[in-house]
Design the sequence.
């Protein structure tokens, strides 16, 4: 479905930043050996990328890439930013979800209000289009309250027939 496709593409887009960090962490030839001075600079560049793109890199995936002997203090700023961002995103999603629920309740109420409107037809009710009594014929009720024979009405309910005078009973 479309939602799944969008989420998959977004995950791939975000993985690009994770891949960039991984490339910085790999030594020459793709080895994960970060022991020399150049490696310390490379590690700092990788941490800098994490701090810069904290909102685009999954912290659990990022921590798996980092060397096990690396002190937490080195990535503390990244983790703080990432957690703050995650919490604010969760809060934003909660607020959005609640607003959507309020909107859903409002729409359901409007639907119920429309469905409970009654139409009273008696032997004196006249079709304003053809002028004949409606009787037991099939009817069409427009949103503005005009009631006509089904055969006299327009299939487009948004435009009721042009009736010069109609007083609903």
Sequence:
């Amino acid at each position: 479905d479309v939602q799944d496709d969008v989420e998959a593409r977004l995950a791939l887009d975000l993985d690009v930043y994770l891949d960039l960090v991984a490339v910085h962490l790999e030594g020459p030839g793709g080895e994960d050996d970060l022991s020399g001075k150049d490696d310390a600079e490379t590690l700092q560049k990788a941490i800098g990328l994490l701090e810069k793109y904290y909102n685009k890199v999954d912290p659990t995936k990022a921590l798996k890439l980092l060397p096990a002997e690396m002190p937490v203090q080195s990535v503390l700023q990244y983790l703080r930013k990432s957690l703050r961002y995650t919490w604010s995103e969760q809060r934003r999603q909660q607020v959005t979800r609640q607003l959507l629920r309020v909107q859903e309740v409002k729409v359901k109420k409007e639907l119920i209000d429309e469905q409970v409107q009654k139409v009273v037809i008696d032997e004196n009710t006249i079709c304003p289009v053809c002028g004949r009594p409606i009787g037991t014929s099939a009817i069409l009720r427009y949103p503005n309250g005009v009631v006509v024979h089904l055969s006299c009405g327009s299939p487009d309910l948004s435009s009721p027939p042009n009736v010069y005078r109609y007083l609903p009973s």
Remarks:
- Residues 164-169 have pLDDT under 50 and may be disordered.
- The chain has two domains: 2-113, 117-169.
- The beta strands are 139-141, 147-149.
- Residues 2-113 form one domain.
